[in-house]
Amino acid sequence: MSRRSGILEFAVLGLLREAPMHGYELRKRLNTSLGIFRAFSYGTLYPCLKTLVANGWLIEEPGSAPEEALAASLAGRRAKIVYRLTAEGKEHFEELLSHTGPDTWEDESFAARFAFFGQTEREVRMRVLEGRRTRLEERLEKMRSSLVRTRERLDDYTLELQRHGMESVEREVRWLNELIESERAGRDRRHTAPGGSVRQDDTSDTGGLPRHGGSTRPDPSDDTEK
Q1: Which one of 57, 168, 181, 222 is most buried, by most CB atoms within 10 A?
Q2: Could you tell me the residue range of the domain that residue 135 belongs to?
């Protein structure tokens, strides 16, 4: 399985965990919610859905009344099929959510993972965010070293493009720092309060986003390494 196919399967399972959908709804959600899938077609989506059904992670159900399905068939149109996550599919998606390997830090993978952080355990979110930050810091160091070696041979416009790329990576690193600090603050709030009581109002596991206003957040799916 290619990396992009794996990311698509992950995203489809994640969206269907929220609610059953038919193909059109899925494609619309993938396009609007996950920018990395803006250019993909039904010719990509439906083979993915068939694979997930064959693996037992999805089931197909009629999406319309029997008479409407018959009319569609007689007219040569595709009858609407609703895809629903099975218990095995939910378990498989939860296994994928818990994965924190290096592939989860790459540009497209990270964007898809981040889109489902609301369903992800705090400790897993932290490992993915810290891994992404480390990867970008390594990328930034390489970009700086390359610029030092080549800047004398670059014209002004190419040099400006190089600087723009570095600034994009630096912005994402700052954004990641904010997220990591907020995740840590949320974890600390879950600790036992003075006197031994647990602060029930701070036990939510979805408090990882920075709360201050005016922060500019780069698109995590933006591939800044050219």
Answers
A1: 57
A2: 121-187
